[in-house]
Amino acid sequence: MGEEPNSPQRTPALPDGPMPKHAQLREILRELAGEELPHGAAVPSERDLAVRYGVSRLTVREAIGQLVTEGLLVRVRGKGTFTTRPRIDWQLHLASFTEDMRRRGMHPETVLLDAAEAVPPPATARALGLGPDEPAHWLFRLRKADGVPMAVERGWYHPQAAPDLLDQDLTDSLYTLLARRYGLRLESGTQTVLADDADAETARLLGLRSGGSVLVFRRISTARGRPVEDMTSWYRGDRYQVTMQLDRDPGE
Q1: Where does the record place Polar residues bias (predicted)?
Q2: CATH topology of domain 21-83
Q3: Rounded Cα gap, residues 61 and 45, in angstroms
Q4: How far lies 142's CA from each of 113, 165, 170, 218, in Å?
Q5: C-alpha span between 104 and 76 (Å, rounded)
Q6: Coil, strand, or helix at residue 44?
């Protein structure tokens, strides 16, 4: 008798060996998601995979779970498991979002959500060297790559460093604008990175559920030895990962 028309296609069972079966299946699914299926495509169900490769549902669940953790697959409650875009690996350096995306061969896009002159919070005033009631330029922008929301930015800029900033086109690289119009090339910065849950507004803009995982970067950048920028960015946790080179202190 042949197989029923709707039964899952059978392949040789995964062999016993030095590599555990969940690891073998993980690599099969990695290749499937990375090379054969388009982004957003459904992968076979746990039951189908278990039958196809002659393994238990627990083995399938473990293999899928590892790829979900890596950001290669995503589970959608009540619908199944789907391929997703691989995480962008961000190596910490002082570069604009626009420059970074273009270097990766992606099309960057900036949506200006708001811009105003306002009195910043005390921590920002101190970071920029402003008086208690001295205003600064405030920008609120959504950053996209290949049409996909990647980050929400809320930034403050020193008013004396870029006096008419709010009258400029703020939908392209801000660092390029600062360099070309004001002769300001950001030279150094301090950046704090933390993981957090997205608030309702940030989640909506990034296409996440409220409380979804985000990476938060607060960057204070200087040009000509003076602080120019105090910006906080919220990046999608399922789209980004951070790589840092660690060198041991030779004095230790």
Answers
A1: 1-10
A2: Arc Repressor Mutant, subunit A (1.10.10)
A3: 10
A4: 7, 18, 11, 16
A5: 28
A6: coil
Q: Mutual orientation of helices 57-70 and 21-31 as an angle, nearest 10°? A: 50
* pTM score over 0.90: no
158: which 2 tokens? 């020193």
The highest-level CATH class for domain 88-243 is: alpha beta
- Given a contact cutoff of 8 angstroms between Cβ atoms, the answer to whether 194 and 234 are in contact is no
Instruction: Report the C-alpha gap between 30 and 169 in whole angstroms.
Output: 42
Model confidence over 63-97: pLDDT tens digits?
898 888 767 788 888 888 888 765 554 544 446 67
Q: Residue ranges per domain, the chain?
A: 21-83, 88-243
Which tokens is 164 given?
């008419």
Q: What is the pLDDT of residues 111-158, one digit of tens each?
A: 999 999 999 999 999 999 999 899 999 999 999 888 888 889 999 999
> Strands 148-157, 226-236: parallel, antiparallel or unpaired by DSSP?
antiparallel
Q: If we measure between CA atoms, which residue out of 58, 90, 86 comes closest to residue 74? A: 86
Q: Which residue type does 17 have?
A: G
